[in-house]
Amino acid sequence: MRIIDHLVGRGWLAYGPYDQLEITDRAWPACVAVMAAMLLLTAYVEGGTVMVP
What we know:
Layout: H1 2-9, E1 13-15, E2 21-23, H2 28-46
Antiparallel strand pairs: 1-2
């Protein structure tokens, strides 16, 4: 829980209704970059190509 509290304190996450965690607007670019990197890494490891519509 310390990492969650740290990220909330820095403004990357926020508590929403019913204490659900929400990603703030500040964190969206980082999340998109991490997801894209995981997709490209998976394609590289599997030896496939990435199809983007």
